Amino acid sequence: MTATELEVQSLVARARQVLEQRRGRREQLQEQLARLRKSLAERQRDRQLYGQVAALLRTVAEHARRDAREQVEMLVTDALRYVFGPHLEFQVVTQERAGRSEAEFYVVSSYGTHRVQTRPQDARGGGVVDVVSLALRAALLLLARPPLAGPMVLDEPAKHVSEEYIARVASFLKETSSSFGRQVIMVTHNQHLAQTGDKAYLVEMKEGVSRVRELAVSLT
User: What is the DSSP string of 31-60?
Assistant: First the structure.
């Protein structure tokens, strides 16, 4: 092989290497874009939920609004404390703006005598946001007038809650379903949450066909 042929061969090898690196980088960017789009969709769903609760508080009379606000605060606070401990509290701050009542939502963390108030999305980790959203959905179903019928449908609840707390979320869901007499239908990849149900089904893709089979669950 001549020197020229060796040089060409080296250039081709280098070009292939650069191409593979760029393909890898493109795949990384595509995965990052997909994650960002998914996160954006989640935040939009949370924002829609907060808007629904705020709308609920706007539609009731003043005295009923106070009662509804207190019930929302109590239910979400109970959920946060059930999962994460007694140092968390949920607050709804309502105020009149341009002749209409507006609601803002906060998580208050207590560290001894020091209290820190943040918006749910700015609170400790994504797990707090997930539990707040979960409890707000339960509150919305409980307080809506006229009452909202049907099950509570959840798509990947508590996906950002760490393994340390996920068993408590599963227990909270079980208690909520039992206390409110509301069926919960949930899509999840989390085994702890799947085991919470009275029935659990696994959906998996094989050779381009979705197959469903029932899973054994613990009924304790």
Answer: HHHHHHHHHHHHHHHHHHHHHHHHHHHHHS
